[in-house]
Design brief:
The complex is a heterodimer of chains A (377) and B (357).
Chain A: E1 2-8, E2 25-31, H1 39-48, E3 53-58, E4 62-64, E5 67-69, E6 73-79, E7 84-91, H2 98-109, E8 114-121, H3 128-136, E9 144-149, E10 161-163, E11 166-168, E12 171-178, E13 182-189, E14 192-205, E15 208-212, E16 215-216, H4 217-225, E17 241-244, E18 251-253, E19 255-259, E20 264-267, E21 276-282, H5 284-297, E22 309-315, H6 316-322, H7 326-334, E23 342-348, E24 350-353, E25 361-363, E26 367-374
Parallel strand pairs in A: 2-3, 8-9, 22-23
Antiparallel strand pairs in A: 1-6, 2-6, 3-10, 4-5, 4-23, 7-12, 8-12, 9-24, 10-11, 13-26, 14-15, 14-21, 15-16, 15-20, 17-18, 17-21, 19-20, 22-26, 24-25
Helix pairs in contact in A: 2-3, 5-7
Chain B: H1 3-12, H2 18-77, E1 82-87, E2 93-96, H3 100-104, H4 108-111, H5 124-137, E3 145-150, E4 156-167, E5 173-182, H6 184-198, H7 208-225, E6 229-236, H8 239-246, H9 248-263, E7 271-274, E8 279-284, H10 292-310, E9 318-325, H11 332-348, E10 354-356
Parallel strand pairs in B: 9-10
Antiparallel strand pairs in B: 1-2, 1-5, 3-4, 4-5, 6-8, 6-9, 7-8
Helix pairs in contact in B: 8-9, 9-10
Classes of the chains: A alpha+beta (377), B alpha+beta (357).
């Protein structure tokens, strides 16, 4: 496996190395640009990587090494020696399609040689937990699946994904990695604390929350946010919800949008009626420690010094809290990775990575890491 | 610009790059906003907690009062049949409902502080109850049981008590709660019925039904332990004539005196039963058949000396048939039949004697 990267902020920082282009090359583009400003650099990329698979997503901030890159494109080129790739994508017409699209993508990728999957989804039209449920319905635990929901800073207006030289607002794409030598290692940590009273979800439908303890959930959020309520939905990221549904593991969910007419809040994943929820809050140190713990949790026992890519997907809410200290969590990860690791990534509206029992699950508020290397054939 | 930063710059006189100043200024503002948001959210949360606590306290007090009222109504409604109690791990009452006055005659305030075993009679059932109470103190749940206690007027009362341990948060028993039901009438009736089903109403001796059960037990015991026993079938001679001549009253009196006289010949594990109008069975347990002759002689002699003398004008005598286990029968019926046969032979040969099968 060979790695290369380029950045763009109106101009490319270096010239393309065409020798990387092949059918076994994956190009990942992380972009903070609006879709309409992207055509020219995307055409540049596709011109030089005609045979490669090009995917990408709009982000709430790009990650390169231990730095946060705003107003930029970060382009990563991975040329595999023995691993083969397959790109699949499907349009998602509405949030209700999330499970179905996940299932279809997994079905298209699935065969006996499939080892790992990397998924990029639009960030505002997808119910992330239904998407991962759909993937899990086809893929078993042995297939490591990670990815992200696209972001748009914290505007919550429009996200897109990139497939070859086009941007799409309403698509989900996935790349399958096939062969014996590809290796994915993942880890995910948050670093948040619950506070205040526990509340019962008394009215919800899928990922739309209407009432907590029979009171409008949006009103409770507004009360807690005070002046910042005018900045909803982005200010809602200050108080994600810890959700505990009987006999399920506790999960964290962040706000995607609000509907003032309906007094409802839409989250990145399901909020089951009857579950118990608590507000969560973050502090700098716990977030940075959480990122560091995630990096330390990556298992490098089988790693033998091959070129190593680490895709870091962190939640926009963390960036919103950390502000100028955001890069400290990137350093906290980067510093414990093996030397010469290429760390790239994005701030997102949702992180996808495996759990102990499933090939993937939607996470919120986490630093989620996917370390990728290819053993020498 | 943030006021603190403005003051710091003024005091230090530093000349700082504009971009750097902008970043520091923004960090100050962010920090203030974060602090305000955190403080305000914690205050809201704290108020919610307090409100929740007050509501919970209020609700629990109302519920507690309701529960107390329900309990008091229940205690009042059931006061003629039940009383409720709580005692500590040393069996000392710490609560007892006023209805104990209706059932046992004691004032509740006088019972509190006393040990419940003070009220127990010496009946055997209470020994078991004390053992079970010790188990409850160890945390076991025990089925309801019957105890016999003294009424304040010294009458014996029977109570069905159901006690159960109360645990603290660490799972340690702190006290025992229970309910007692007055079952004196029911219990004594049951005892009487049980007695009557096993005893002859006139003489109080074991009846035929109970005799069969007891002999079956003795057969099994003798078989296991390779022992012998003897069955004496005793029939009062000419009893029908005595009844017809002197009346049933005199006949019944004779039967009672006769059975009392026979009782004197019993050892601890022997049995005496009345199985018909003038027919008695005496079972000598764990005895060698060679002793039968001597025992029968003694019996006849004694009857002659006591009953025959007492009822001279009735000319009382008895005929006795004797069978021995195992040689004369392996079952109750076989042993009774053998003894009856021996007794019949005596009747045929002039009565007032005994015969060994």
């Amino acid at each position: 496996m060979k790695l290369n990267y380029f950045t763009y902020n109106g101009v490319w920082d270096s010239s393309f190395d065409d020798s990387f282009d092949s059918t076994q090359t994956l190009v990942i583009v992380f972009s903070t640009y609006p879709a309409e400003a992207l055509q020219e650099p995307l055409d540049d990329i596709s011109t030089h990587f005609k045979n490669s698979i090009i995917i990408g997503a709009s982000t709430s901030g790009n990650i390169l090494l231990n730095e946060l890159r705003e107003n930029s494109l970060v382009v990563t080129v991975i040329k595999f020696a023995s691993t083969t790739l397959q790109l699949v994508s499907n349009k998602i017409h509405s949030m209700q399609d999330s499970f179905k699209v996940g299932q279809e993508l997994a079905s298209q990728l699935h065969n006996k040689d499939l080892k790992d999957v990397f998924v990029l989804s639009n960030g505002l039209q997808t119910n992330g937990s239904k998407l991962t449920d759909g993937l899990n319905s086809i893929l078993n635990k042995s297939i490591t699946t990670s990815g992200a929901l696209a972001g748009d800073d914290a505007k919550f207006e429009s996200t897109y994904i990139i497939i070859n030289n086009q941007t799409y607002e309403d698509y989900i794409c996935a790349v399958g990695f096939y062969g014996e030598n590809i290796h994915f290692e993942t880890a995910s940590k948050n670093g948040l604390d619950k506070f205040g009273v526990q509340r019962i979800v008394t009215n919800s439908k899928n990922n739309i929350l209407y009432e907590l303890d029979k009171q409008p959930a949006l009103e409770i959020y507004k009360k807690y946010l005070g002046d910042k309520a005018k900045d909803l939905p982005s200010s809602g990221l200050y108080f994600p919800l810890a959700i505990k549904y009987p006999s399920h593991k506790e999960i964290i969910r962040t706000i995607l949008s609000v509907n003032h007419q309906e007094n409802s809040i839409t989250f990145a994943g399901d909020i089951p009626q009857g579950s118990t929820v608590s507000f969560m809050k973050a502090n700098y140190d716990r977030l940075i420690d959480g990122a560091n713990e995630a990096a330390n949790e990556l298992d490098f026992d089988k790693y033998k010094g091959e070129p190593l890519l680490c895709i870091a997907v962190s939640c926009i809410a963390r960036k919103l809290v950390l502000k100028q200290r955001t890069e400290e969590e990137l350093e906290a990860v980067f510093d414990v990775l093996p030397p010469n690791t290429l760390q790239v990534g994005m701030y997102s509206f949702g992180e996808i990575s495996p759990t102990k029992t499933q090939c993937c699950q939607l996470h919120n508020q986490t630093m989620t890491l996917t370390a990728i290397w290819e053993k020498d054939a | 610009m943030h006021k603190l930063l403005e003051r710091q710059l003024k005091k230090s006189g530093a000349v700082v790059d504009e971009k750097f100043l902008e970043l520091v200024n923004q960090a100050y503002i962010d920090s203030d906003e974060d602090r305000k948001l955190l403080e305000s959210s914690l205050e809201i949360s704290s108020n919610e907690m307090r409100e929740l606590y007050d509501n919970l306290k209020k609700t629990s007090q109302i519920e507690l009062k309701k529960s107390e009222n329900r309990f008091n109504r229940l205690v009042h409604e059931l006061r003629h049949q039940y009383f409720f109690y709580t005692y500590d791990k040393n069996f000392i009452f710490i609560y007892i409902s006023d209805s104990v006055k209706d059932i046992l005659g004691y004032d509740a305030k006088n019972v509190i502080g006393t040990n419940f075993t003070n009220y127990y009679t010496d009946e055997d059932i209470n020994e078991n109850s004390i053992k079970l109470s010790e188990q409850i103190v160890q945390g076991d749940k025990i089925e309801p049981r019957v105890v016999s206690v003294y009424h304040k007027n010294r009458d014996i009362c029977y109570l069905e008590v159901d006690s159960y341990p109360v645990f603290d948060e660490d799972g340690q028993v702190i006290e025992i709660e229970g309910i007692a039901k007055d079952i004196t009438e029911q219990y004594t009736t049951q005892q009487k019925l049980a007695y009557l089903s096993n005893h002859d109403a006139l003489t109080g001796l074991t009846n035929r039904y109970s005799l069969y059960n007891q002999i079956e037990y003795i057969i099994n015991d003798s078989k296991r332990n390779k022992k012998n026993f003897s069955l004496f079938y005793i029939d009062l001679d000419n009893f029908k004539l005595i009844n017809d001549t002197f009346g049933h009253h005199e006949g019944d009196k004779l039967l009672k005196d006769f059975s009392n006289s026979l009782k004197k010949h019993l050892r601890q594990n022997d049995i005496l039963a009345r199985i018909g109008g003038d027919e008695f069975i005496l079972v000598y347990t764990d005895i060698n058949p060679s002793s039968n002759y001597k025992l029968a002689q003694n019996l006849l002699q004694n009857i002659d000396q006591e009953i025959a003398q007492q009822y001279k004008q009735l000319h009382v005598s008895v005929s006795i048939g004797i069978s021995s286990y195992p040689k004369d029968g392996q079952t109750v019926d076989e042993l009774l039949k053998s003894a009856d046969t021996a007794m019949y032979t005596i009747k045929q040969n002039g009565k007032n004697n005994f015969g060994i099968y």
